[in-house]
Amino acid sequence: MPETKTKTQEILEIDALHNSGLWAPNIVFTHGKGVKIYDAEGKEYIDCLAGIAVASVGHANEHLANAIAEQAKKLMICSQAHGSDVRAAFYKKLNEFLPTEMGLNRIFMANSGSEVNEAALKWARASTNRNRFVSAKRGFSGRTLGTLALTWEKKYREPFEPLAYENDFIKYNSIEELDKYVTTDTAAVLLEPIQGEGGIYPAKKEFLQAAREITKERGALLIMDEIQSGVGRTGKFLASEYYDIKADMVTLAKGLGGGFPIGVLAMTEETALSMPKGGHGTTFGGNALASAAALAVLEEIESKNLIENAKNVGDYFMQELVKLNSPKIREVRGKGLMIGVQFKAKVAPYIAALKESGVMTINAGATVIRFVPPLIFTRNDVDAVIDKLKGIV
Ligand SMILES: *Cc1c(COP(=O)(O)O)cnc(C)c1O
User: Fold this and answer.
1) Which of 21, 123, 257, 286 has CA 20 to 30 A from 321's CA?
2) How far is CA 29 from CA 47, 355, 386, in A?
3) Which atom of ligand 1 is found nearest the CA of 112?
């Protein structure tokens, strides 16, 4: 009898022949429902990875899927040079979520996190006529040639030098280094309120407040990169809300479309209008389908109180992780459903064991397991994950 291949093997053979060479997948996912995701052999996983903090309202969410399908039958594309009913509805709804006192009422829409960070850097240049930036060690801003200058990880950055911008990397949470490196040549300081890729490190309140004061004093802008922390994940719509700061620009992406590609740069009026006409643009940004998807995600967050849920279930999750009291764990960090568990050793074997047991997670650096599940996560889901963890750590 000829050996029969599994569905997974068949698919991965094709993948191995044609993928870009950047990844070597060993699992195939075919569908999901809520916080569960299923592989090609039908095995079920609790999804604490969610496409890296993307599937905010859960997989195969009815309201989101219907909104996309209905919009696709009506109109998919409408350039930002033309008005769109669904884009206007999205602007309006997003504005209800963005704290009024932050004054971030001007929106540029694109299709990914890097794209809106790119836009923020250009806006900062246009607004200040300066070309230097400040970002943080361990920070991640994207891997396009512009954003890469502000991304810390050397292996991402060094092969592509020289990069587009001069940038100083400061120690995260060091007010002293902010004071030293932010000068009257600085266009903007870009910071994540909670570092995501870098290992789930929340900022100290004094640090972000100092960043606001020092940038203002020296004529530089403050950009908060909330691509991972935004859209309710931390228990507030923006993590910045915990810090009482008003940034000039905030970027959102990952969770905003619930899986549909979209990025948003929200700006103050003054910043937005500093860009010369034609100074930036995009073909797909602000398209009707993305607007419908993001609108549906915000409606779902609102009607199901998902921000509050992220806070409550996140607090419970952190508490249960701490209660594991494992000698292998050094620290549990995070806010809401953006949680990092720092281990004393490399986490790859634990992530593999969790996957084997039916829980998908991802690392954030070599020694941190990241939990960024859909915002619909429940205490029962937490209990199920903790149960699996008990057998592993
Ligand atoms: C993911 C991420 C980005 C890049 O977003 P892409 O959509 O992958 O381009 C930028 N900043 C932060 C904080 C991120 O988490």
Assistant:
1) 257
2) 11, 13, 23
3) 7
End-to-end CA distance of the chain: 42
pLDDT digit string, tens, across residues 36-56: 999 999 999 999 999 999 999
Q: And the tokens for 123?
A: 């806006």
Angle at 200 between CA 197 and CA 203, to 5 degrees: 115
* Ligand 1 contact, 112 CB (< 6 A): yes
Distance CA 8, CA 41 (A): 7
Q: Counting atoms of ligand 1 from 1, which one is nearest the CA of 254?
A: 7
Residue 251 contacts residue 224 (beta carbons within 8 Å): yes
Architecture per CATH, domain 7-57+305-390, reads as Alpha-Beta Complex (3.90)
Q: How far apart are CA 127 and CA 133, in angstroms?
A: 13
pLDDT digits (tens, 9 = 90+) for 241-271: 999 999 999 999 999 999 999 999 999 999 9
How far is 177 from 172, CA to CA, in rounded Å? Answer: 9
Which residue has its alpha carbon closest to ligand 1 atom 8?
Answer: 113
Give every residue of the chain whose pLDDT is below 70, as ranges. 1-2
- Residue 185 CA to residue 218 CA, distance in Å, equals 8
Structure tokens at 363: 């690392």
Whether the model clears a pTM of 0.90, i.e. scores above it, the answer is yes
Going by CATH, does the domain composed of 64-303 fall within 1.10.730.10? no
Reduce the DSSP state of residue 351 to 3 states and report it: helix
288-303 and 306-323 helices cross at what angle (nearest 10)?
Answer: 70
Give domain limits for the chain. Answer: 7-57+305-390, 64-303
Backbone angles phi, psi at 62, to 5 degrees: -55, -50
